[in-house]
Amino acid sequence: MRKGHVMLEKVDLKKTLSKDAYKKALKPLQESLASMDMPMKEVGLPVIILFEGWGTAGKGRVISKLIHNFDPRWYSGVNTPPPTALELREPTMWRHWLTLPEAGQMSVMDRSWYQEVSILRLEKEIDDITNLRRMNEINNFERGLVDNGYLIIKFFLHISQKEQKARLEKLDGDKNTEWRVTPDDWRRCRQYDRYSRIFDEMLEFTNTSWAPWHVISGMDDNLRTIEVFRIVDEMVRNALQLRREQHAAPKAASNVILPGDYPFVKMPLLKDVDLSKKLDPEKYKKQLKKEQERLSRLHNTIYRKKVPVIVVYEGWDAAGKGGNIRRVADALDPRGYEVVPIASPSREEKNRHYLWRFWRKLPKSGHVAIFDRSWYGRVMVERIEGFCEPEDWQRAYREINDFERQLYDWGAVIVKFWIHIDPDEQLRRFEDRQNTPSKQWKITDEDWRNRKRWPDYEVSVNDMFRYTSTTFAPWHILCGNDKRYARVQALKILNDAIEERLKSKK
Questions:
Q1: Which of 4-18, 89-103, 406-420 is the least confident region?
Q2: Mean pLDDT throughout 357-368?
Q3: What is the dihedral of CA 419, 423, 429, 431, to 10 degrees?
Q4: What CATH number was assigned to the domain covering residues 270-504?
């Protein structure tokens, strides 16, 4: 693990704040904190304030004092207990994505995603590699939030072993408070030095420029309160000012692509893809049945072995995504899969990180999720239509790779399809839909408008292949001029990917 200075040892646990000094500092801070609700709402600033630290260090008390300054309509309190059995069937960060505040609102967390890292490290004794991966996931998670406009304020409340023991004894000796003390609390107090080393490791590795830690003494209630109030006030005020300056300043041109440090699979340009491949009806029937039966057997295996499968469909309008998805779904037990159609984001979704709505739709272990369009809209339609700034869609390549890497490390099979057709074939299908009453609902003015921007979309798709076709989540181009060929091709690729992942888990 990374080595560095010991953060906990730097905290002065002897420092106190007098009652008079406390009263003098408290009122202006309370007034300042109470006045920030509306400015946060006006500029759309989402804030996450999280508290970690030793048991009995005063997290609950300082949280109670802090939220008293805010309008209850603009904040939510989040308690983070150990994950349930159901939550353990989801990716590690899944439940934390669900608690993200909307733009202009605040979440105050009593423990957070860090609890699992520190507790698992100590009590489940996860190895260095797994621990490092988990903390990298947290750093990427926080970086993604901050890059997309969130403010994260992290507190760790520190006390001495002697003080912790005294507080536990006091709580345990009172009938009204003894319920707050558990055998785990006493055990962790006895193992104070061991826990201290792990906490330091965690603090050091996740003390980033975008989300630094504030390690505060929990020994003195007055000092703890003023320090927390002061830091929250200062950081929110600075974030509000920065947000106003960004809104006022002209947007600078950005030409930086950030795919992240990942191994990539070289992909052909769309113009070089051979679309002449076909499958005659008889061969199609036989191969379709064979591959569907194969997928059906594999579905039973992944359910038994708790392997999640994520299938992503992107492609040109009228390329045949719906028919392709239907042939995959026909082979699956309806109790073990979900087709997730992706449309324009709702107001609720627009007010959060753009990946939030996709995290909510991930399958639990052993299940299959089929996405009819996906998070790649960020680097295609949102890029082309100007729904986000250039720096947003360019940064999204790295964010998407981070996202998919986390899913892969969780154990997921990730299969991404682009169904490719040529412009002539698309025109033929558009006209067929337009001239067939039962199919007219499939064609819209937007489809015709998108067709005019084919060259722009082709550039964005080629970029998408270049920057997001990783070894753990590669893109597969389906030759879609012949729908039969594309359907069988998709099933074969999906089956091969599942079998390969099952072999690696033996």
A1: 4-18
A2: 97
A3: 160
A4: 3.40.50.300
* CATH of the domain spanning 8-246: 3.40.50.300
Helix (H) or strand (E) holding 302: helix 281-305
Label residue 94 by pLDDT band (50, 70, 90): very high
How many residues in the chain? 506
Distances (CA, A) of 425 to 275, 319, 479, 487: 10, 9, 12, 17
Average pLDDT over residues 175-184: 91
Q: What backbone torsions phi and psi does residue 262 show, to the nearest 5 degrees?
A: -130, 155
| Confidence tier at 82 by pLDDT (50, 70, 90) | confident
- DSSP strand E in 113-180: where? 151-158
Q: Within 173-280, where are the H helices?
A: 183-190, 192-205, 221-248
Instruction: Parse the chain into domains and list their residue ranges.
Output: 8-246, 270-504
SS3 assignment, position 273: coil
* Pairwise CA distance, residues 315 & 427, whole Å: 15
355, 388 Cβ separation under 8 angstroms? no
CA atoms within 13 A on the CB side of 309: 32
pLDDT, tens digit (0-9, with 9 covering 90-100), for 376-411: 999 999 999 999 999 999 999 999 999 999 999 999
* Residue 400 amino acid letter: I
